[in-house]
Fold this protein.
Amino acid sequence: MTTANAPTGLAVARQALPSPGTPSGRGVDTLPAPYFATPFSGSLGSRRILLLSYHFVPSSAAGTLRWQKFATLFAEQGWGLDVIALDPSQLKGAEPERFEELPEGLRAYGVREEKILIERLIDGGWKALKRLPPRRPQAAPPTAPVGALAVPAVAATLTREELSWNLFHRTGWRRAYYAWVRFAHDRAWARRMADLGSRLVQPGVHQFVISCGPPQLVHEAGRAVSETTGLPLIVDMRDPWTLQRRLQEYLASPMYFALAKRAEQRIVDRASLVVMNTPPAADGMAEAYPGKRVLSILNGYDEEPLPPIPARTRFVIAFAGSIYLDRDPRLVFRAAARVVRELGLTAAQFGFEFIGSAGGYGGKSLEQIATDEGIEGFVRTGRSRPRAEAMAFMAQASMLLSLPQDSTLAIPSKIYEYMRFPAWMLALTESGSATDRVLAGTGVDVVRPDDVDGMAAVLRRRYQAFIAGERPSPIARDPRLSRRHQAELLLEALAGIPAEHGPA
């Protein structure tokens, strides 16, 4: 059966629900129907968590998986979830099959993301200009898209050291302006989310409100719900906010960090617990906010069945995900070209395969970059695929590749999926980074992003082992790196938080 407000094409199983009881807010009879719900009983109906997250099922975004999987592990311990996320009708990519993986007792509600007044005025102005007779060839507006639905998948970026308050230069005021609009846009959506969340909360039933970002202003919605209802707030940051090092060029302004610091301070002050998803990020937050309880909860690997592992006759180096920010493939292609020349390899014997938002980097296609680096014909690219197909793609790889990122506090989410496959892994990361630390002792080949000699040595050694008949074992052997263990750590932390934080 399809819910009344489910987007076209998303078949959502929904059965009769028990009475929701008496929410703490006003307007109970105006509550929207959930876009997904299953019946619940016992503790799932009497002990619940309100989760606020921009990304949730059926979204195909990488940020969806953390709480999609945690939801099931929490349900096993008697916790039901009410989730508020982006309205599914606005998703760029949806995987309805993920509904089948959600646990009993989960309800999900959608909140639409709308343009704020200034965005609508600018859009209207450009439409009016386009209707005027052109006097000269029209150029695209000198603006970057605003709003999470329109942000480009790949964009130029700047580091914090490259930011400037020079408002007398057009890039200075333009970036400051878009940083401000970005915050205003996200804050408006967070207010709508907070309004619904406050009305959904049932006194004595909901025990916590958890906000999960990015987008980081979802935590502002969590703060507002916590202040209205008295529920303890748990802030779950999948990526650092004020600690991040790199921004997309169009909003790369000190204005962004000024706004972020003010908002983050208010949110952290209200939080009973701040959760970061790597130990270095947790260390950074603990240093920034002395006395605040900060915990590291990794994403972790899952225990779901793997797709069939096919016989491998070609040494395939596979990458599944997005190439953006600083995930530059040029140097690993250069290292591969050296190995191809030294061993006299053909594309039938050795090569790279990419799927996802991974068609190019720096304005060039990956195929063109491969040609520039001397391995024309050794690189293949493909579209983004549903998660099940992406897992099958990874299953055919001899080596799985993690490209570099200059955020030493973050761990690419694919690292945990890669851990489960019988394939070698090449991780390009700085020494001492979060990725380097989590992979220590696992047998993964970790190489600095600028070490072409090191990359070539790994590719040569692993290829020669492959043709000798060697096949690696999965590295997901340490249960402490599993998502189940991480969920247990989070539940243990929640057990130590008083049930009432007190309304503001």
Q: What stands out?
A: The chain has a mean pLDDT of 87. Residues 233 and 271 are 5 Å apart (CA to CA).
